[in-house]
Write a structure and sequence with these properties.
alpha+beta; Glutamine Phosphoribosylpyrophosphate, subunit 1, domain 1; Rossmann fold; 2 domains; seven-stranded antiparallel sheet; six-stranded antiparallel sheet; 17 helices; 30% helix; 24% strand
């Protein structure tokens, strides 16, 4: 995707959030649970929200109908009390969007719903298909039209095309045809279905309710509705939840796991657990490893809110440097790229963070952040800290340099716009005005996910089960027009 105002958004874009509920008691209401589940996943997408619901069959009417409500904005803006009161059913599927494929238009909001004589189906998708254009063209050649530029519409049209074969066959045929990263949730006339790509790039997990089941992008959303986390959906696994059972089967040959490293670095909420990795714990360890790899004589360590804070705590523990708040983030400044003019976008970048002068004055300060993409935020923070009286500002980053684009669902810019791709660490440090700059090593990052990781015994091509493509240029699956390794 390409938005002119992306230059003012200095972090990789969140992907999407999925939350689905199936109540085995058809008298229960799943919509309110999905509503609160989406609230807990709002960090994964703030551009639009939607809920599809399987309504209770009316008396004298065979079958059930899927109804959908969606719109642009935050969950609380899209779903007023009036909307929620008219949206009831025992199974529901929700989605929050950050548009990595397609623009943030109403047409691209999810879930997508298809109705046919063979039944109804709603689809919510997190990820990016690498063969979406090819599949779209084949479907258009067969007479199927599209109203959006979303990968999710490609998926639902494939399912609808094969739905006469039955749900399981339609899903299997569709999943075998699409390539790339995906965490899928589908709502049909009698089931809630979840599927994860063969490498498990995008997260998806299973939870249990008293009298029901949950599919969610993160475990924190299951906690939000008093559910019980059961397990992660495995790479290449599909689960089908119905009234009487939960079926699971593998739809692909065993491939190596390649979970997105940025989930732990930045995207996921710290209270989530993804693929058995405690996100908060991994960020604490990243800070500790940074301390061991790049300690500097300083009197204060501060974290850039929010994801840099646990790493700053870890750095302080490892080095004995006192931890302080230092930087305050305005949670109401809004996303910089949605402002209507360049002047207002620049002002939003300026007011998003502020420095507590009394905390940093006359001190050598270490600033911990999760990543540097374009450098705008880091440059601004160095300027603010020095203006507030900091004697020295040392930047430590708990991810390796981002040098390559992501093709699997993260909104990173073109390679030429990635500041670490066109500058060495020393050049970047001078550009930011910092006194020193160090990134965590790739091995250090992997050890933050798994304390038992041993770089000596680990296979260099395995990456310990994580996708590190944006750092190394080595992607877990082939991408058209991109060599398997773009690393220099």
């Amino acid at each position: 995707m390409n938005r002119d105002c992306d230059n003012y958004n200095d972090k990789p874009g969140e992907k999407c959030g999925i939350f689905g509920v199936y109540c085995t008691d058809t008298k229960k209401d799943a919509v309110s649970l999905v509503y609160y589940g989406l609230f807990s996943l709002q960090h994964r997408g703030q551009e639009s929200a939607g809920i599809a619901v399987l309504q209770n069959p009316d008396e004298g009417k065979s079958g059930a109908a899927i109804e959908c409500r969606k719109g642009l904005g935050l969950v609380g803006q899209v779903f007023s009390d009036n909307v929620l009161s008219n949206l009831k059913g025992y199974a529901a599927l929700g989605h929050v969007l950050y548009s990595t494929s397609g623009s943030n238009d109403l047409e691209n909001t999810q879930p997508f719903v298809s109705h046919s004589k063979f039944g109804s189906v709603a689809v919510a998708h997190n990820g990016a298909l690498t063969n979406a254009d090819v599949v779209r063209e084949l479907l258009e050649d067969s007479g199927i039209g599209f109203s959006s530029s979303s990968d999710a519409e490609v998926i639902i049209n494939l399912i609808a095309k094969n739905y006469k074969k039955g749900l399981e066959r339609a899903l299997t045929d569709t999943i075998k045809f699409i390539k790339g990263s995906y965490a899928l949730a589908l709502l049909t006339d009698d089931a809630l279905v979840g599927a994860r790509d063969p490498n498990g790039i995008r997260p998806l997990c299973l939870g249990k309710l008293d009298g029901g089941w949950i599919l969610a992008s993160e475990s924190c959303a299951i906690d939000a509705v008093d559910g019980e986390f059961v397990r992660d959906i495995e790479p290449g696994e599909m689960v089908i939840i119905r009234q009487d059972n939960v079926l699971s089967f593998t739809f692909s040959e065993k491939t190596r796991r390649a979970s997105c490293a940025f989930e732990y670095v930045y995207f996921a909420r710290p209270d989530s657990v993804i693929d058995s990795v405690d996100v908060y714990g991994s960020r604490i360890r990243a800070g500790e490893i940074l301390g061991r790899e790049s300690a500097v004589d300083a009197e204060l360590v501060i974290g850039v809110p929010d994801s840099g804070i646990p790493a700053a705590i870890g750095y302080g523990r490892a080095t004995g440097t006192p931890y302080g708040l230092g930087i305050v983030k305005s949670k109401y400044a809004g996303r910089a790229f949605i402002a209507p003019s360049q002047f207002l976008r620049e002002r939003l970048v300026s007011v998003k963070h502020n420095v507590i002068e009394s905390e940093v004055r006359d001190k050598r300060v270490v600033v911990i952040d999760d990543s540097i993409v374009r450098g705008t935020t880091s440059r601004r923070l160095v300027s603010l800290l020095k203006a507030a009286g900091a004697k020295e500002v040392h930047i430590r980053i708990c991810s390796p340099p981002v040098r390559f684009p992501c093709y699997f669902g993260i909104d990173t810019p073109h390679r030429k716009d990635l500041i670490s791709n066109i500058n060495s660490a020393d050049e970047l440090c001078a550009s930011l005005g910092a006194d020193s700059l160090v990134f965590i090593s790739v091995d250090g990052l992997l050890q933050s996910f798994d304390p038992d990781f041993n770089p000596v015994s680990a296979s260099s091509s395995n990456n310990a089960g994580y996708c590190l493509g944006c750092f190394t240029g080595e992607y877990p699956i082939p991408v058209a027009g991109v060599s398997q390794s773009e690393a220099p």
